[in-house]
Design goal:
homodimer, mainly alpha, 9 helices, elongated, DNA-binding
DNA sequence: TAGCCGTTAGAGTGATCTATCTACAGCCCA
DNA sequence: TGGGCTGTAGATAGATCACTCTAACGGCTA
């Protein structure tokens, strides 16, 4: 398993990455096991070797890996901006650019799965909820850090995550980037309003 | 086809309603044709008799029927409230109540399908886009009606639809109603801000 | 060199998928 | 009474689904 000469990620990782990509774009139900291993250029049996729980275990791994990775990326963008409003704009614009760059396939790594499995698979539903909760928690922290009180910070955080997800949904369906920038501007106004002491 | 004595909707309508319910909850890919006719208590061949295009035609019918029905419902709620802020609150609270009442299955009739088919089926993607466009258009009209200028009205409308969809996604994943009410309050603040002349 | 174990290999299972097929039941109008 | 149309009925095709099985390969330690 030590991949000395080979210049590619190990099989387990390639399978996870391929599954993540397909789940994001096509959703959980529409993605087949065979398609995953083909995309990953991995042997069929290896999937069940590394993920004995099959499709569900693989999906949970994808959710719990892609979620934090995305969060880290967003935090990086956020913290690189000079102030709160710039951070907000950078994140929304970044989402819009990503959506466009991926031919309107990707922007949120778990949105499709989250809606799909919410009433279908409890294990995966909880996994998506945990990811969302972490995102909201992280954003809430950014707001309390600048002196916004806890309740307002959480309300703002929930609103902004909702704006990102909803804007993503609208713009992906329309294959343009209008809702995301508009939502970003409105988010800026909300934060400005909050900081100006209501 | 004339259902004289029978006290139930005609077969075609029963199939459409059953498909709508299943698509909303489980999504497009995860819902089987057989499951639809079973739920509708309809003969198998009738599905292909009424919807020769099969699953895709049925889904498009569902999208293009459920979308306007939902819009009409929201407009009714909106117009029944005494003022703009009350309308906004009524819609967001109504969404939260519906979500809870349906055991966190239903709140938006096309959200799941929209994300699922966006990169998969062009016909259905366009159908979801048309529905979203109609919603945004309707809401934009409500705002211009009270004197908000066109550009601001559209930005507000996009933002509010995004908030509804995103809040729905978060609250469904978490099986609670926190994001939707929070988003509603923030929407009220945005509209108030807009009307107070920035 | 011998043996071990993580990994690869792919055929095969049973279930389920969408869709098509032929046959026929009931009703309207001629 | 007879022809034609709408809708019902269900078997079946052919593909694909997730998953399991046995066997063997190959680099490692003993």
């Amino acid at each position: 398993m030590t991949d000395l000469a080979v210049e590619q990620p190990p099989t387990k990782e390639r399978i996870r990455a391929a599954a993540a990509d397909l789940f994001h774009r096509k959703g959980y139900a529409a993605t087949g096991i065979k398609e995953i291993v083909t995309t990953a250029s991995a042997p069929f049996a290896s999937l069940y070797h590394f993920y004995p729980g099959g499709k569900v275990e693989l999906a949970e791994t994808v959710i719990r890996t892609s979620g934090p990775m995305f969060q880290q990326l967003v935090e990086l963008v956020w913290d690189a901006a000079p102030d709160l409003e710039a951070s907000l704009r950078a994140v929304f614009d970044g989402a819009a650019m990503t959506l466009e760059a991926t031919d309107y396939a990707d922007a949120c790594p778990i949105a499709v799965i989250a809606l799909e499995v919410a009433s279908t698979n409890e294990v995966l539903r909880v996994a998506t909820d945990d990811v969302f909760a972490a995102w909201v928690g992280s954003l809430t922290g950014r707001f309390t850090d600048v002196g916004i009180d806890a309740a307002a910070a959480r309300s703002l955080a929930l609103t902004i995550i909702a704006l990102l997800e909803g804007g993503f949904m609208l713009d992906r369906a329309a294959r343009r980037t209008e809702a995301l920038p508009a939502a970003g501007e409105q988010a800026v106004r909300l934060v400005r309003l909050e900081r100006s002491g209501r």
